[in-house]
Amino acid sequence: MSTEIEKIKALAESAECSGNTLEEVFARCFLAAQKELDITPFDEQLAAALALTKGKMVQMQTGEGKTLCAVFAACTEALVNGGLTHILTFNDYLAKRDYNWMKPIYDAAGVSVGCITETTPKEERRELYKRQVLYCTIKETGFDYLRSFVLFDEEPYFPEELNFAIVDEADSILIDEARIPLVIAGDVAVHENGGMDEIYEKAAALGEGCFSVDEESQNAYLTDAGADKAEKIFGRDMYAVGSEDLLAKVCACIKAREILKEDKDYILKDGNIVLIDEFTGRAAPGRVFPGDLQSAVEAKHGLKISSRGRIMGSIALQYYARLYRKLSGMTGTAEQSREEFEKIYGILTEVIPTRLPVARIDHPLELYYDGAEKRKAILAAIKEAADIKRPVLVGSESISESESIAADLEKAGIKCNVLNAKNDFEEAEIIAKAGERGTVTISTNMAGRGVDIKLGGADCHDKDFVVSVGGLLVLSTSPRESSRITMQLRGRAGRQGDVGESRAFAALDDPILLNNNLKGLAGRHYPSEKTKGVLDDKVLLREAERVQRISENNAFEDRVQLMKYTMIGEKHRDITFKRRNSLLNGSYSSEFWQKTALYEKALEKFPEDELQILQNRVLAALLNEFWSDYLDYTTYLREGIHLTQIAGRNPAEEYNIACEEYYESAAASIAERMEEKLRDVLKCEKLSDYEIDKPTRTYTYLLNDIGEEFKAKPVLMGMLSDDYESAAAKLNDDNSQKSGESDKSAETTEKKGFFGKLFGKKK
Ligand code: ADP
Ligand code: MG
To answer: Residue 354: CB within 6 Å of ligand 1?
Structure first.
């Protein structure tokens, strides 16, 4: 036991904890946990809590009591450092549960606490954001951050600086979902969907041979034959200047038709497309496919094509998390992603040992020839357990897989609970009962994460029986993108030293094994003909395990790669958002109008102080417009970014240069646009007659953006000609002369982007 923990416990024992040092605050929470919740915190929990106060990523197994650890760290932040804490939970259900559960401790410690969920009204949020500790999802608070960027007439309710976040189930939020952007759109200038219905219908003629699919990015491209045919159908050369938009729509239609599958990638619910999260396997309401793809999928099902207004702001969860001055997290599986947490978030991982030894038996991967063989084995395992009334939790890959297993079980006369696409609250209830005698629960990846599975039911009334049949059995139906996700699933069994067992299945035709070339890696060890039962070739098995590590590394590399593209936009967003806030809260005043010849005239007509207030507001509105243009431009760049690879340039660098140039030239145009606005103001009788352009309605949603376009291989190979190479080389020469000896960063911004030249400026 560390001396710090000894000291805390000594203080608690002597009830000397009225002061506000870290140890005293810890001791106070310790006593409150005993008194209010009848829980005596374990040393491991104190150690984890201490790590959280230091801004670390804490690995602590499922069921070890992480919820309580966060309370110690949050109270310390409030009472010792005087700062606010957001505890970011996995979903709304857990935000509410943890808030209600822990509130008595906060009350006893004298720390104010609140909770925000999707349904919390805006008026209440203002006050809630002032609480010392707030439980909410990263999505809710991230949306509030974006909303503060489009607010006009009300006092902002979102804190100006974000202080401390404790992210629960941190690997899921900070790694698996990190790239998901939150988006806010407004009805300032509603986008036309450009006849997607008609395009979709016409694109039906572009069948086999007309398109190819990029394995990695899962995007569809027209082949030469396809482009010829499309030209006939649409009466336009697909690759001509001005056809970019149509080409993008046609490719989106093909992807919607050929690649995206109902019940795997999305479900239809009340006439809407609801995406399925690829990691949790759960319905993700409020999320949409990027760009034209959403309308294409809607056209596929003959749904009304939705209009989403103009995007006014967006932020990936990853960057939102990085806005906090101090960030920490907790999860059952952090160790495997130690490097990523450090590289991307700059936080160190600390592994807390389990309080009791882990008694769960984790069996090595079981490999089968194909899906059918694998299914037989899975069903046999379930049946074996069901026969002795042992509870089983099956973690499937998709909703359709869950349903097909359930159908097989029904045929075999085995009852089961299928858990997917329902709401968090119902799911939590089903999962909480997954440890009861004779229960078979089938769920996708991480449904019900954060909910404890107690042996013998939520109140453990039947624990002895369930222990006697071996505890909970967890089955993972296929390897996932990361072994961390399989580990997370295995960890649902064997909580707090319970008995339990986990088995992981794989078939040679599982996507992860196919896409990462297991066949090539295993060579002659790869079975040449159908084999029954489990495959036991050691080399083959070793390679199958290695394939998952390869996939894991690729995914990590992709995320690092994506960051090289997205950092620049984050920098620009940060400057723009801050400037806008300071204009509205009065800490900064615009002086564009003062510099124009019209200003004298304006002063004759209007009082100076009112004119200044209006100027600040007009500039704030202009910054919204500016930012929407910027987002449009960068989307446009991203769609063509692979082109620079052809010319042997570094696309990430080109992208950064192009963004920087656009930002600067657009910023330089603001003076002129402000002058135009002043001219409009002068036309008004009274200042109050002047109407600022602002959205009357805003919408928030999540994009399913994983930066596919950055992975896209150059498709327009036809453009690879000497001309391009020499043009690129020439640009290189120009740069080397110009930048001379200047340091690296200056060089980057000074460079004239090849990309910018290739495409020119938009508009
Ligand atoms: P985790 O988030 O680590 O999976 P939870 O915070 O959900 O774990 O807690 C799991 C269970 O452990 C809960 O039922 C909780 O009441 C119980 N628990 C937590 N801490 C203690 C403790 N110190 N003593 C006894 N039970 C505890
Ligand atoms: Mg938890």
So the answer is: no
